[in-house]
Design a protein that fits this description.
Length: 307
């Protein structure tokens, strides 16, 4: 879903991010706005396209949040995108973020000063230099479109305390979203083929079809789908992996088996960790500012600005 090098599920906080950030501040030149000149280098077919970070953020914001969202929601998302860049640059241990041109070449001929980008550019400009930290380190800036009514607790799902700021947050307003509920139908044949492709053991059709157990976290997202063999041996597919097998909008689903197909009834859109963009927009509509929105979704974090 995103262009950064490490997917959110595998990402972790690095022990020396603060040191690397300090090094970047020292090594990079300061631009006219007084910000650190972080650079984004995109590998194109014809060579390398070098983009100032703030310009890149305008392009990126235009792909992840509608321009019709409230300004404060757009600003909150801008801070999260900048946080992703800071974290990724620190991980690469250099002065710039190296990206593949796949999916980004379309930006090359676009002018971010045009009216088309006005709302996105304003959101980036008004949060210039700001990123989100926990205990002095850039956070894993997770976000998604619509929750199932609440966000997920990372400590519960991943059994780690490395992301204490990713806690469960109520998002009841998400249930009013147009795309909150969806139904996905999969033929029995396609279902059996897909499931078997992810399992190492040889399961019978009956075992794959009937001996299925879904495990949920307290937020109502599937954490695992278990299959049991008659000899008692079991295998499990991770909830997010299972979701992508069948292109489900989220891992918050119930599963019904009929004679010739499986029916998935899904709630929400996205992985459920961090900021719900729909809820963020609702909060903005109700007068909340971008920093209040971020404080709501990311427990005990603080905004940091480039020196």
């Amino acid at each position: 879903m995103f262009v950064f090098l490490l997917p959110y599920v595998c990402a972790s906080l690095w022990g020396h991010v603060g040191e690397e950030t300090a090094k970047l501040r020292q090594d990079n030149k300061v631009n006219l706005e007084g910000e650190v000149g972080y650079r984004i280098r995109v590998s194109m077919d014809w060579g390398v396209w070098e983009i100032p970070m703030e310009e890149y953020l305008v392009y990126k914001l235009s792909t992840v949040m509608p321009e019709t969202y409230e300004k404060e929601a757009l600003k909150a998302q801008s801070v999260l995108l900048r946080t992703e860049v800071v974290q990724a640059i620190a991980k690469q241990e250099g002065e710039e973020l190296l990206l593949s041109g796949a999916g980004q070449s379309k930006w090359y001929e676009m002018d971010i000063s045009s009216e088309r980008f006005r709302n996105w550019k304003q959101a980036v400009d008004e949060t210039a230099g700001l990123y989100l930290c926990c205990q002095g380190e850039p956070i894993q800036a997770s976000y998604f479109q619509i929750s199932n009514g609440g966000t997920r607790d990372a400590a519960e799902v991943w059994d780690t305390d490395q992301r204490p700021y990713l806690r469960s947050v109520s998002c009841i307003q998400d249930k009013a979203a147009q795309n909150y509920s969806s139904t996905v139908r999969v033929s029995k044949t396609d279902y059996l083929r897909a499931v078997q492709s992810r399992l190492t053991g040889a399961f019978s059709e009956q075992e794959l079809w009937e001996e299925v157990k879904l495990t949920y976290d307290t937020a109502g997202y599937v954490t695992g789908v278990s299959f049991l063999k008659q000899d008692g041996e079991a295998e499990q597919i991770d909830g997010e992996t299972f979701r992508y097998l069948f292109d489900l909008p989220s891992a918050s689903f119930e599963m019904e088996r009929e004679e010739r197909e499986v029916i998935f009834r899904v709630a929400g859109v996205g992985h459920g960790f961090g900021m719900s963009q729909y809820s963020a927009n609702c909060m903005a509509l109700n007068g909340k500012t971008y920093d209040q929105i971020l404080e709501n979704f990311f427990y005990r974090t603080e905004l940091t600005k480039f020196e």
